[in-house]
Amino acid sequence: MQYYLQHLSAVFPSLLQGAVLTVEVTALSVFFGTIIGLFVGMGRLAKNKLAKTICAVYVDVIRGTPLLVQVFIIYFGVPNLVLQVTGNRFPIDPFIAAVLACSINSGAYVAEIFRAGIQSIERGQMEAARSLGMTNAQAMRYVILPQAFRRVVPPLGNEFIALMKDTSLLSAIGLEELVRKGQLYTATTFASFPVYTGVAIIYLIMTMTVSRWVAYTERRLSAGDHS
Amino acid sequence: MGKKAFKAVALVLALSFVLALAGCGNNTANTEQNTAAEQGEGGQAAAEKKVYLVGTEPSFPPFEFTDEKTQEITGFDIDLIKEIAKEAGIEVQIQSLGFDGLVPALQAGNIDIIMSGMTINPERAKEVDFGTPYFDAGLKIAVAADNDSIKSVEDLKGKTVAVQIGTTGAEKAKELKEQGIIKEIKTYNTVDVVFMELISGKVDAVINDLPVNEAYMAKNPGKVKMVGEVLNGEQYGFAVAKGNKELLEKLNAGLKKVKENGKFDELKVKYFGS
Q1: How far apart are CA A39 and CA A186, in angstroms?
Q2: d(C-alpha B272, C-alpha B262), whole Å
Q3: CA B223 to CA A215: how far, in whole Å?
Q4: CB contact under 8 A, B190 and A32
Q5: CA distance B180 to chain A (A)
Q6: Which of A184, A186, A192, A193 best probes binding to B when mutated, by most B CB atoms within 10 angstroms?
Q7: Each residue of A197-215: pLDDT tens digit?
């Protein structure tokens, strides 16, 4: 127990630093991922064939390949490709590579969440809006999306939590997020059990916070339903 | 809305890329400076600001590790490259990476120098340019302290061995397996896990760099011991991208000076006690 607490308290400050980076990467990626996902999700329902195909391919490719591989492609692959093709060096910062990869990854999942959300709104809503003289875009913006958004909050919360845990993969490119901080401490002290339980506890606290916040948002959004 | 949606998607993708770049400007000030210096061709002011990024895998004490108190990467290699840089008149910044990612990162241009207890071998020399060797190391077998059945390489017959991915210990193990000596190799990302598996009895032995084994034994007395001869006489070297002669010459000259002025021996005493 002495051993356990001693290492846990020693590693804690550095784990917190890592947690801050984890939150930063997750928050930025969720933000960009949601924007990408919203438009790609609508793109998949668009009438334009080209837009539809591009969005479908994006979703298939990103969901069909592991995040770790995507991170490697962006961090190692793209600079290497640029170097081969143009002869110029194109160094990329691990943090930027991380946010980029996670945003692109999250975007594909969020796109499907939004597509399902939009499709779950009854056809009659669109027809009614159109019959009031709204254009397709107006109907989407003022009638469909607000209703769809309420329905996509729970799955979006899932995606948020999943992404937060998936950022642990970024330790592979040396980004000193939560898991990597733990690895670096165990590398010198070999105290893996206290360190990784510490890491797990911090992840748990962060994901519980997110899920509480999602539940709260859900309650607030549904409050207006029956009034 | 078809066309509009398509345009919007393209715009958002582009915008998010730009924002991602701008959004983390503070974290990456040095790297961006670095990039700017490289892109701003010939500008003298830009050239002066050039900071070389040194890639290292800081889970390899006492060569490179994270100081528990300051949270900074330190160790024999790190102090040495800083001394070399001082003598060579360049600025360096340490960048933490996975060991198996070091060579790809150098090739991709994400880092400029590898300084990470890296053994010079022909396979790596095909991909990167090594500087003058700066450290003599070798591989040695480690077993659990109470293991009396393994005393040499020959005793590894039919045994399971753990190694760290991408290391020369891993290559040696592969070689021994091909010779029919080792039965199974288990590969792990970091060296601490390798020892964890040994202590918990999941593997019979570990093949690793001698100084790393020593460092582990110093931290965890009575758990493991080394057996047999040193497997190969190996040398560590720093590396730069293939063809980067200018930087390599600067670093080699710097290393020479550090050895001459006694700093090298000081560091050896500091980290290895001899």
Answers
A1: 43
A2: 15
A3: 49
A4: no
A5: 32
A6: A184
A7: 999 999 999 999 999 999 9
Which of A10, A39, A95 lies at the smallest CB-CB distance from B28?
A95
Tell me the one-letter amino acid at B206. Answer: V
CB–CB contacts below 8 A, A to B: 158
Buried b (16+ CB within 10 A) or exposed e, B159-181: bebbbbebbbbbbbbeebeeeeb
CA distance B105 to B111: 6
Residues of chain A with pLDDT under 50: 227
Position A163, amino acid? L
Collapsing DSSP states into helix, strand and coil, what is residue B171? helix
pLDDT tens-digit series, residues B99-141: 988 999 999 999 999 999 999 989 899 999 999 999 988 899 9
Question: The tokens 């059945």 sit on which residue?
Answer: B149
The b/e string for B241-266 (b: 16+ C-beta within 10 A; e otherwise) is beebeebbebbbebbebbbeeebbee
* One-letter amino acid of A225: D
CB hemisphere CA count around A112 (13 angstroms): 14
DSSP state at residue B221: T
Q: Which two tokens stand for residue B141?
A: 């077998």
Whether B53 and B34 have beta carbons less than 8 Å apart is answered as yes
Residues B267 and B82: beta-carbon distance below 8 Å: no
Closest residue by Cα to residue B51 from B95, B104, B116, B105: B95
CA distance A43 to chain B (A): 6
From the list B8, B65, B195, the residue facing A39 with the nearest CB is B8
Per-residue H/E/C for B26-66: CCCHHHHHHHHHHHCCCCHHHHHHCEEEEEECCEECCCEEE
Token readout for B82 is 């800083």
Q: Is the ipTM of this complex over 0.85?
A: no
Which contacts of A168-171 are long-range, i.e. CB under 8 A and separated by 24 or more positions? Answer: A168/A22, A168/A203, A169/A67, A169/A68, A169/A71, A170/A25, A170/A71, A170/A94, A170/A98, A170/A102, A171/B98
Residue A190 vs residue B77, higher pLDDT: B77
Question: Half-sphere exposure of residue B193, counting CA atoms within 13 Å on the CB side?
Answer: 12
